[in-house]
Amino acid sequence: MLGARLKALRLRSNQTQQQIAAQLGISRGAYSHFENDRNEPDGTTIVKLAELFHVSTDFLLGRPDQQFQPQSVKAQTVAAHIDEDVTDEQMDDIVSYIEFIKQRHSKRNDVHG
Hints:
DNA-binding, 434 Repressor (Amino-terminal Domain), elongated
């Protein structure tokens, strides 16, 4: 399970095994063994992988807790398009709009569900 998640996360980030291995300070072969479930990374490496892929260690280890699921690709895209110089007021507006959209879809699902 860990290997499949690592591979999916790596592919989603458009990186090669060599690139990930270099960021971890290990060989490409060692990283390949993680993806192919031949070896398991130690705790320190699991933490590094979680940070690298912006997911929790719980997600990497297959724990089902919903609060530890990785951000969706769409959420990452939205976050990437918010400039660092956005004001607090603008950020509040963005969050309010997101909540509005979520509520609108929730109401639609209640009516059609």
